[in-house]
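Box 4.2: Ligand-aware structure prediction
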Amino acid sequence: MIELKHVFKRYPLGIEALSDVSFRVARGEMAFLTGPSGAGKSTVLKLICLLERPTRGQVMVNGHDLARLKPYRLPHFRREIGVVFQDNRLLNERTVFDNVALPLLVAGVTGDEVRKRVLAALDKVGLRGRERGFPLALSGGEQQRVGIARALVHRPALLIADEPTGNLDAALSDDIIDLFQEFNDHGVTVLIATHDLRQIGRLQARVIRLGEGHMVSAA
Ligand code: ADP
Ligand code: ADP
């Protein structure tokens, strides 16, 4: 599902964020990407969803060689990946329903289909019935669930998350990671960047370790 081969990434101003990084995540797998702050975790996720491009090396995602992806295919490619952020990035002046519906509207889905898919996504994250509320009326854990529903509303094959429990206490973090595990049990490939050792220790998932831009291990 994901393969990085000898990937280097140098940002403008000369910072080498990644140096010869290679690893694979198989279809159906759940893996943690970990390492100290600045190790390059976010950079790896940005390469996978094509928010950044490598300076050298190859990135393959869901059968696509990203260097060869035609610009007109980009919107379709983005729908194959659900992305969850630490700070959930919800629109606070829009309802829960509208936040989850947004990716569908952007994709041109209309009418009853929108309602059906939004309510199904909210149901999967345990928020059915909360669709008319606004994000700021929800707890931090619930807001993160709305972010996950929005990421999953296209039923993507791959879910990537950048420090999804960074703003949550231990119990809520467990709930969120367990939710990712449930999606994984239903076939969604999951890659979670985190330095939350507690979560890594709690689950049987693969661990890919980075240190200062280098691979440490991918056991
Ligand atoms: P992590 O997610 O593990 O904390 P990042 O991928 O965010 O690591 O950062 C890796 C390195 O790249 C850091 O030194 C960071 O300062 C640098 N970096 C990240 N994004 C940019 C950018 N847009 N421009 C310049 N340097 C960046
Ligand atoms: P079905 O096709 O009957 O829904 P699946 O085995 O595909 O059965 O999915 C089981 C559960 O997981 C269902 O609730 C389904 O909606 C959900 N699910 C499966 N894949 C995804 C995905 N990529 N994104 C969101 N939910 C998914």
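In the box above, the bound molecule is adenosine-5'-diphosphate. The longest strand covers residues 16-25.
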